[in-house]
Amino acid sequence: MKLNSLRILVLLLFCLSHLDRVVAQDAIFSQFYSSPLYLNPAFAGSGHDYRLVMNYRNQPFPNFGTFSTINLGFDAHAPGLFGGLGLLVTSDHQGELLMKNQLSAIYAFHLQAGENFFINFGAQTGYYRQDLRWDRLEFAESGEVPPGQTWTHASNFAAGILLYSDRLYGGIAAHNLNRPRESFFDNYGLPMKFTAHIGAYLGPGQSRGMAAAAPDYFISPNIIFQNQADAFRINYGLYAGLQSLIAGVWFRQELTDPATLIFLLGINTGNYRIGYSYDYSLSGFTSVKHGAHEISLSILFDSEARKLRRRILNCPAF
User: Fold this and answer.
1) Where are the domains of the chain?
2) 23-39, pLDDT tens digit by residue?
3) DSSP run (H or E) holding 233
4) What span, in angstroms and rounded, lies between the C-alpha atoms of 242 and 212?
5) Backbone angles phi, psi at 280, to 5 degrees
6) What is the pTM of this model?
7) CB–CB of 69/57 below 8 Å?
8) Are 58 and 64 in contact (CB under 8 A)?
9) DSSP 8-state class, residue 211
10) How many CA atoms are closer than 13 Å to the CA of 188, on its beta-carbon side?
11) Angle at Cα 265 formed by Cα 163 and Cα 269, nearest 5°?
12) Superfamily for 5-307?
């Protein structure tokens, strides 16, 4: 199987991953709040009684599916455990050469610190594995020695804090706390990822006793900071909703890479939420950087009894 220029570039980046300079990073989603457990484990149980979310992200260059990430999350409010429980599955495919998969379990402790002020403490433990398809690689010179094994696995841990009131929410999270092994040639570990996020929800809220129907309108400005090794990015975003329709725009600014514009459209029927976003890179390399597509689906379940007893976090669905 012959490798085109992009796949060769992916191979070069991979080979550098066991050197002193870090290049490996976690997968990125542009619909941050449609994958809340992936953003911060402290979101577990903060939404509705039960929440199922599915995300698919694709970078269709050179072929559809060449770079793709699938995320599946489920969380539930667990009053008997004073918080929420979550399950997260993520599968990242890079250039049909490298596959990374992770299965995680999450618990978040919910604390009511005031009449309208809440704090969640989240902890995440998981199993991380990556597989290299060495047989698909071609080298300029034959006889390249493969690693001892073409897969690695390890445990992986994360933690986070979420604070929210009627109109404001924010938190911090740290992933890859134990730096699971990333390199196939030595013990080099996946670098830790740090996230800080803050936002406001301006519009009719979902307080105790209110149904899960979409609000008449809302505006929600947000800022998300993320750092992993040498990569540092700032995401500025604004959501606006009218009835069941939602639109959003984000500006992703990176210190080492060109900026990216993100456009989003979504439908919120209350119990079902569907979103589509498109990443438009300002790099100028249209065939490589442009065209990242992302689709999300959220399904929410609520019982009338629990709806009357607890606060539901006012937060964008995407």
Assistant:
1) 5-307
2) 568 888 999 999 999 99
3) strand 231-242
4) 15
5) -115, 110
6) 0.84
7) yes
8) yes
9) -
10) 18
11) 75
12) monomeric porin ompg (2.40.160.40)
